[in-house]
Specification:
mainly alpha, about 70% helix
């Protein structure tokens, strides 16, 4: 059985890793981002809901038509999407679809980082 501290660490790592892997987000999260992730964990927000919200909001930004938007600078940007997912969770198949659509953009981000 995992201790609560271990569960919190796993939760924080998962949120930060997901956040940092998305297109248009910082590679290195700030201390405020880590604090918010910890707060979400302590408030009992399900990890699945947070990850779904991050994917949903990133997909809306990335896959929309029009000029590119400025990069996201903080995890706080995703709070409205987290609330939305908690109130009305999308179908799992739709989340998988969005993840597949975002994969090429996330791969580009990884490739660019690897070239530095």
């Amino acid at each position: 059985m995992k201790r609560p501290a271990d569960q919190e660490r796993i939760y924080l790592e998962a949120v930060i890793e997901t956040y940092s892997s998305l297109p248009g987000t910082p590679v290195r999260p700030s201390s405020q981002d880590r604090r918010l992730a910890r707060d979400l964990c302590r408030r009992g927000v399900p990890l699945r809901a947070v990850r779904t919200a991050l994917l949903l909001a990133a997909a809306r930004r990335t896959l929309r038509s029009g000029p590119p938007l400025a990069p996201v600078r903080t995890l706080h940007y995703f709070l409205p999407a987290i609330e939305e997912v908690l109130e009305l969770p999308p179908e799992p198949g739709y989340v998988e679809y969005l993840a597949d659509k975002l994969r090429p953009f996330a791969s580009k981000k990884s490739a660019l980082l690897g070239e530095r």
